[in-house]
Structure formats: structure tokens, C-alpha cells
Specification:
alpha+beta, globular, ten-stranded mixed β-sheet
């Protein structure tokens, strides 16, 4: 981005800090925990899997288990078969599509195990692609499940083998056995060898339509397994973010990314829309000066709205905060004005964002977080005591 040349008076009139408002966003890393390479979910609705697998890979490094490349498509296949059963059992009242939650990965870890990427074909390779493309797969599987769900509930159960065949034609056979470093494993024995315990991980959220310090199932379509999240006051949820990152843990993060403050260039902020509107007028800094529409990015740091519990709840109640996307938070940074951000690993490849990394402001985290999954030891002791975990 080119450097802006504006008068200090105009910039101060907008409300940005005159000490750095003329400069592009710059970030200084404060804490950065190990993560595996950035993957690309490409044309699939499987962010829930890519983000949580990335989180588990970082957990393995934190635990001193070294770097692993776990297979996302094994989890996707197992999860979609389970989701199909739910749709059929409901006679089509439940919805079948690619979306899911962090819990789907934890459920697979606990009930089916995991496998390394080397035990399955590379995503896309079975149909001539170098990245996963599930448009055709999703259409075929959805039609198949819809047809079975319309049949009498006492029909035979052979259909699940047909659906498994559809998935394995596109993602490869979900192995029952494989060999790693000369040792034969099942997915369950492999998961056990990694030392990951699904019961060590908890989901947290913050909404006022349920009591605090109790569990409830988030009312979103991706939470089709009806997983329960602990409900914390916003200030406590933010304390978990800080405590986790400050003490060596990373965070699996589900959030809304449909807001104007999420840009293609790696920003997630909550710009003060009133200030932006007031700035776009005669004799003032124009909106075009502040925001690069072609590059979908803010040209320099701007003021953000102040987020509290009431604003956060309003966003959820009005359907403005939705379960759009899942990512992996692994560090902290500051911009040149000293404002705090969380470092976010995405699963859209390295060609978008800042080589695949986004910087989410504290305001954005407070406003647009749907839920997070963390190791229970990443939660401050006093909050854990209140939750009884």
C-alpha cells in the first residue's frame, strides 16, 4: 500500500492518532506460539476442521510431541457420515451441508481417532485438483441424503455404505489401519499415541440469554451435535484469551467474518462507523482516503467502537453475528500506535491476508467471537473454580 500524504489537522479531525495515522498498518509481534504450515480449505465448507486440526497440531508441539500433519479429510468424512445419520433419523428436519464446529473434531478424536495426512490421498488429488474442491461432492451427497431421508424410517440401513462410497470416491478411503514409523495403527491407537485427550478441551462463549457459569448449546446450525459451551461474562472470556496466549496455549476460534472491519489484507477491526460517516464530507477526510475499496483494506489505524456485553448480545440477537468461519489464534501483536491484536492463522492459503495471517483487534474479538475451544489448563484458576473444571 502506498503511504498517505495528509495534513495532521485532517487526520486529527477524523479522530485517529496523529502520531501514526499517516502510516500504513504495521504490526510488532509480542507473543507467537508454534503453528504448522498454513493450509488451504479452498472450495469447501470445512473451516471448522482445518482450524481445529491446526489447533491440535499446535497442542502437540506445546506438549513436546513434535510437528505432525494430521488429516483433515478423515475427520470430514467421519463427521459427514454422522451428520447424514442425524438428518435421516429426523426424516429430513435436520439440515445436511458441509458446515460444522470445533466439537466435531473433538468428537472424532474421542470416538473414531485421527490419522496422519500420509495415510490418505492429498486433498483434490483423486479428481485432478491440487486443492480440495467439494462442490460436486457436496451436491451429490446432499441429494443422496435428502432422498434417503424422504423414505420410511424402517427402510434398511445399507444407504450409509453408499454415502461412504461417495465420500471415499472424492477424499479417499478412510483407513482402518496404517503404518507409521514401522508401527501399525488404527485411527484410535494413533490418536492415543499422540497423547491428546478430547476431555481436556472445553468450549466457552458469552451471551446473556443464558445464565453465566453454566453450559448451554449455542443456537446455530453448525452446532448440529448440540455441544455445550460454558457461558462466561465477556470480561472473563477476554481474560481466557489473554491467559491462554500469555501462558503458551493457542485457541480454536469461531467468529463472524462478514463485517466491513474484516479485510482481505489481514485486518479484523470494529471501525467507528459514525466517525467514518462524519469524515466523508466537504472539507473532511473522505471515506475513499480512509478505506481502499479495491484492496479491501483500511489504509491506516482508525478509531474503533467500544464493545460491551450489551452490544455483543445485540449483534447475536439481530442475526448480525453469525457462525461464519473458524480459525486458529496463536499469538499477540501491537500496531504502531500500541493497540493490541490477536494473531490469527486462517485456512485460505497464503495468498490472502498477510501471507495467511490476520490481526484481530481486542474489540473485534469481544464483538464477533461465537465460541472458542481451549485446553482447560489455559483458563484462569478462579474461572475454572467457578466452572468446577
Amino acid at each position: 500500500m502506498k503511504r498517505l500524504i495528509l495534513t495532521a489537522a485532517l487526520l486529527c479531525g477524523f479522530g485517529a492518532s496523529c502520531a501514526f495515522a499517516q502510516e500504513d498498518f504495521r504490526f510488532n509481534t509480542i507473543i507467537s506460539h508454534p503453528v504448522t504450515s498454513i493450509k488451504n480449505q479452498n472450495q469447501t465448507g470445512t473451516c471448522w476442521c482445518f482450524s481445529t486440526i491446526s489447533f491440535l497440531e499446535s497442542e502437540l508441539m506445546r506438549m513436546g510431541k513434535g510437528e505432525h500433519d494430521l488429516c483433515e479429510m478423515f475427520v470430514v468424512g467421519k463427521t459427514m457420515l454422522d451428520r447424514a445419520r442425524t438428518v435421516v433419523d429426523s426424516n429430513g428436519k435436520e439440515v445436511f451441508y458441509q458446515g460444522g464446529s470445533h466439537y466435531d473434531v473433538m468428537y472424532c478424536l474421542k470416538n473414531y481417532g485421527l490419522c496422519p495426512q500420509s495415510a490418505m490421498p492429498e486433498p483434490g488429488s483423486l479428481y485432478g485438483e491440487t486443492l480440495p474442491v467439494h462442490n460436486e461432492l457436496d451436491a451429490l451427497a446432499a441429494a443422496y441424503v435428502k432422498a434417503r431421508a424422504s423414505m420410511p424410517s424402517d427402510s434398511n440401513d445399507n444407504w450409509i455404505n453408499g454415502l461412504k462410497g461417495i465420500y471415499e470416491a472424492y477424499i479417499g478411503e478412510m483407513p482402518e489401519r496404517f503404518t507409521i514409523k514401522g508401527i501399525e495403527h488404527t485411527p484410535m491407537s494413533y490418536a492415543k499415541s499422540l497423547g491428546l485427550n478430547a476431555d481436556d478441551y472445553v468450549s466457552l462463549t458469552s451471551y446473556t440469554h443464558h445464565p453465566f457459569y453454566e453450559k448451554f448449546a449455542l443456537e446455530v446450525s453448525d452446532n448440529w451435535r448440540r455441544d455445550l459451551s460454558w457461558n462466561l461474562p465477556l470480561e472473563d472470556l477476554l481474560r481466557v484469551f489473554d491467559n491462554a496466549i500469555d501462558n503458551g496455549y493457542t485457541i480454536a476460534w469461531s467468529a463472524d467474518v462478514s463485517e466491513p472491519g474484516k479485510t482481505d489484507k489481514g485486518l479484523m477491526i470494529c471501525p467507528d462507523k459514525k466517525a467514518l460517516k462524519e469524515a466523508d464530507g466537504p472539507g473532511k477526510v473522505s471515506l475513499a482516503t480512509i478505506y481502499d475499496i479495491s484492496g479491501r483494506d483500511f489504509k491506516y489505524p482508525v478509531n474503533e467502537i467500544k464493545i460491551d456485553q450489551k452490544i455483543r448480545q445485540k449483534g447475536f440477537d439481530k442475526g448480525e453475528t453469525t457462525d461464519d468461519h473458524a480459525m486458529h489464534i496463536f499469538g499477540k501483536a501491537k500496531d504502531q500506535g500500541g493497540k493490541d491484536y490477536f494473531m490469527v492463522k486462517n485456512s485460505w492459503g497464503t495468498g490472502i491476508g498477510r501471507q495467511g495471517i490476520w490481526y484481530a483487534s481486542r474489540a473485534y474479538i469481544a464483538y464477533k467471537t461465537m465460541n472458542i475451544v481451549v485446553h482447560k489448563d489455559a483458563i484462569p484458576a478462579d474461572i475454572r473454580a467457578k466452572l468446577g473444571i
